[in-house]
């Protein structure tokens, strides 16, 4: 007969059963004993955040970079409501993770921190799983992990506090997740799609996050068609070093690449929902055939309805299309014969109107691209500064890039940088953040990065303003002073929190800061002092 143990111990054991070695969180009444058991009895690592929402964000980035389900835990009531923005970010980004949330005792309906936690979670778009009884702990945890992977979103497992010291036997349960490729496209719609591709004179292949694992198949198809390759933002870096790669498709394209896309007569889209920013609100898709392939039916037809929609696996569909093109002896298009990739991927530098005491942002990004560690994991917080980072700072591939923009929030980048750092401990993590975002959510977790000894480089684009709002006032010829702030020195803050800070007001000071990169031994922050009138507009 299985040995009886406390529920908090069984939860910790269930995490170990699922291979969890790192748990992000913040302890409270309903989860502290479980965390203790995870660390002391199961040799797990607990990463304490300064804010509950931070723990969820850390777990989201951990999922993306490590390629396995990130796990976080918080207690009840305000601890869970503090996670709403983070859970929404994860749900909108289709990121699988599990949040173990304590709940107030069922026996005390008037508990000070009681709130309908199911309704709180539902509002974020995340999934809710209830821990039913002390005897069903193993299955309830397994269901949360299963649902996170199948539904591709955060799942909150609700744990009543009054279960924790009850006893029950533990039998390990891990549910198998169907991870084989999805279906193969077939039938009349496939025939129509192949006909459109075969007749195209200027075809182009676009890959999104849902096609990251199909890289080689898409390259074979592109080579056969002589079609340029492009990616969405989330698949940034997927086709690095390929001679037909025109980089990011849409509002983030170079002017020359935008013209090339506009000239295409057929766009074959793999694993992308065709967001408005990708299509430039439909402008880039006019007067051309659109073929959309995605294993998720809900990803198709959201922004625009394609001429052919194939609910199928990206790689298998690419191979199928390639097979029939060869069978029919369709000649290549010749569209890539005269491509000038250097011109197609060169972003203009723009004018330098920087005020005294500030550095030109584009100049700084150009030097940072050259000087930052090449094996970096790149993250951006939200803000006006971000789109220039996306197009000017390179990454090794999609798993090395986290944008944190699924919900349009600012102030969540540094938290995700911590999670990325723990997911890839042998690689440096580079975060670009704005001044407003760093004040909102960066300062408290910068100290967490210091405590953890992470190899973190933070670039603060400090225009002393909320830039996205600043530009709107200027566009209306109104006074933007309400958007402007006199922040403390972020370089000094980094030093006071145990890191290393450098303030940059000129090209010479930038070189001094960059010279410190090879000798860094703790989280390093470079504060770029920017003229709010000289930061380029967002490319969205």
Properties at a glance:
six-stranded parallel beta sheet; Rossmann fold; alpha/beta
What can you see in these coordinates?
- This protein is of the alpha/beta class.
- It has three domains: 166 residues, Thiamin diphosphate (ThDP)-binding fold, Pyr/PP domains (Rossmann fold), CATH 3.40.50.970; 157 residues, Rossmann fold (3-Layer(aba) Sandwich), CATH 3.40.50; 169 residues, Thiamin diphosphate (ThDP)-binding fold, Pyr/PP domains (Rossmann fold, 3-Layer(aba) Sandwich).
- The chain is 36% helix and 17% strand.
- The chain is built from 20 helices and 20 strands.
- The strands form four sheets. Strands 3-2-4-5-7-6 form a six-stranded parallel beta sheet, with helices on both faces.
- β6, α7 and β7 form a beta-alpha-beta unit.
- α9 packs parallel to α12.
- The radius of gyration is 25 Å and the shape is globular.
Tell me the domain tally.
Answer: 3
Rg (CA only):
25 Å
Name of the top-level CATH class of the largest domain: Alpha Beta
- Global mean pLDDT: 95
Percent strand: 15-25%
* Helical fraction: 25-40%
Quick description:
This protein has 20 helices and 20 strands. It is an alpha/beta fold. It has 3 domains: 4-169, 3-Layer(aba) Sandwich (Rossmann fold); 188-344, TPP-binding domain (Rossmann fold); 361-529, Thiamin diphosphate (ThDP)-binding fold, Pyr/PP domains (Rossmann fold).
Any chance you could write out the topology, listing elements then pairs?
Layout lengths: L3 E3 H11 L4 E4 L6 H9 L4 E4 L3 H15 L3 E5 L3 H4 L2 H9 L4 E7 L13 H8 L2 E4 L6 H15 L2 E7 L6 E3 L18 H12 L3 E5 L7 H11 L3 E3 L13 E4 L6 H9 L2 E5 L5 H4 L9 E6 L13 E4 L2 H14 L13 H4 L16 H11 L5 E4 L5 H7 L8 E2 L10 H11 L5 E6 H18 L3 E7 L4 H9 L14 H7 L3 E5 L2 H9 L8 E6 L11
Helix pairs in contact: 1-2, 1-7, 3-5, 3-16, 5-6, 9-12, 16-17
């Amino acid at each position: 007969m299985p040995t009886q143990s406390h529920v908090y111990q069984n939860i910790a054991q269930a995490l170990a059963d699922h291979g969890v070695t790192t748990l992000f969180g913040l302890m409270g009444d309903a989860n502290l004993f479980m965390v203790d058991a995870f660390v002391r009895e199961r040799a797990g690592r607990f990463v304490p955040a300064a804010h509950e929402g931070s723990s969820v964000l850390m777990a989201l980035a951990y999922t993306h970079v490590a390629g396995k389900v990130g796990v976080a835990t918080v207690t009840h009531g305000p601890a869970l409501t503090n996670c709403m923005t983070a859970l929404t970010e994860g749900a909108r980004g289709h990121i699988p993770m599990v949040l173990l949330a304590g709940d107030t005792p069922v026996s005390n309906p008037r508990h000070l921190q009681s709130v309908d936690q199911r309704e709180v979670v539902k509002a974020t778009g995340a999934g809710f799983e209830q821990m039913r009884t002390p005897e069903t702990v193993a299955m309830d945890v397994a269901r949360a992990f299963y649902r996170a992977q199948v539904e591709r979103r955060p799942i909150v497992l609700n744990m009543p506090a009054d279960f924790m010291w009850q006893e029950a036997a533990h039998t390990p349960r891990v549910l198998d997740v169907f991870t084989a490729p999805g279906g193969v496209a077939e039938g009349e719609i496939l025939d129509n799609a192949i006909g459109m591709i075969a007749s195209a004179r200027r075809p182009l292949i676009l890959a999104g996050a849902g096609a990251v694992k199909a890289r080689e198949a898409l390259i074979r198809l592109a080579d056969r068609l002589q079609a340029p390759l492009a990616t969405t933002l989330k698949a940034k870096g997927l086709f690095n070093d390929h001679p037909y790669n025109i980089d990011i498709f849409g509002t983030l394209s170079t002017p020359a690449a935008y013209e090339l896309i506009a000239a295409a007569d057929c766009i074959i889209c793999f694993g992308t929902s065709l967001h408005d920013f990708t299509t430039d609100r439909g402008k880039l898709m006019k007067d051309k055939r659109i073929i959309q392939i995605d294993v998720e039916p809900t990803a198709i037809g959201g922004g625009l309805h394609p001429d052919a929609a194939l609910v199928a696996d990206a790689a298998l569909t690419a191979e199928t299309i390639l097979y029939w093109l060869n069978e029919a002896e369709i000649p290549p298009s010749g569209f890539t014969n005269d491509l000038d990739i250097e011109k197609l991927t060169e972003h203009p530098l723009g004018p330098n109107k920087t005020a005294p005491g500030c550095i030109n942002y584009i100049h700084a990004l150009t030097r940072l691209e050259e000087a930052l560690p090449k094996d970096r994991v790149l993250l951006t917080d939200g803000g006006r500064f971000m789109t220039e980072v996306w197009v000017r700072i390179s990454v090794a591939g999609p798993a090395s890039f986290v944008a944190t923009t699924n919900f349009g929030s600012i102030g969540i980048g540094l938290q995700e940088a911590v999670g990325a750092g723990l997911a890839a401990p042998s690689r440096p993590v580079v975060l670009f953040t704005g001044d407003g975002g760093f004040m909102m959510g960066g300062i408290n977790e910068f100290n967490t990065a210091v405590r953890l000894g992470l190899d973190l480089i933070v670039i603060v684009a400090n225009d002393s303003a909320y830039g996205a709002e600043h530009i709107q006032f200027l566009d209306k010829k109104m006074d933007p002073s309400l958007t402007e702030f006199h922040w403390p020195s972020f370089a000094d803050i980094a030093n006071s929190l145990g890191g290393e800070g450098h303030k940059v007001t000129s090209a010479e000071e930038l070189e001094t800061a960059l010279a410190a990169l090879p000798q860094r031994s703790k989280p390093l922050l470079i504060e770029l002092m920017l003229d709010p009138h000289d930061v380029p507009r967002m490319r969205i």
